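Aim 2 progress update. The chain analyzed this quarter is reproduced below.
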Amino acid sequence: DNGVVEEGTFVKTELIRGKRPCPGGEIYEGEFLNGKFHGKGKLIRGDGMVIDGIWKNGEFVNIETPYRWEQ
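Predicted structure tokens:
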């Protein structure tokens, strides 16, 4: 147990859609595959910047909307 609290939809014990806190105060909200960011999702950085788009095997591959800031 790494102390990370994940919220969302699970198949067995694997998160497939939801929210996961990340190191550095970032939060990822979206789809997962094999424990990695995969599909549509957004990464909310600690400074409020949002990276929103398509992810593949944990890597950002396609932007859907321009970067924006959340308060």
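The chain is about 0% helix and 60% strand. The chain has a mean pLDDT of 87. These observations will guide the mutagenesis experiments scheduled for the next reporting period.
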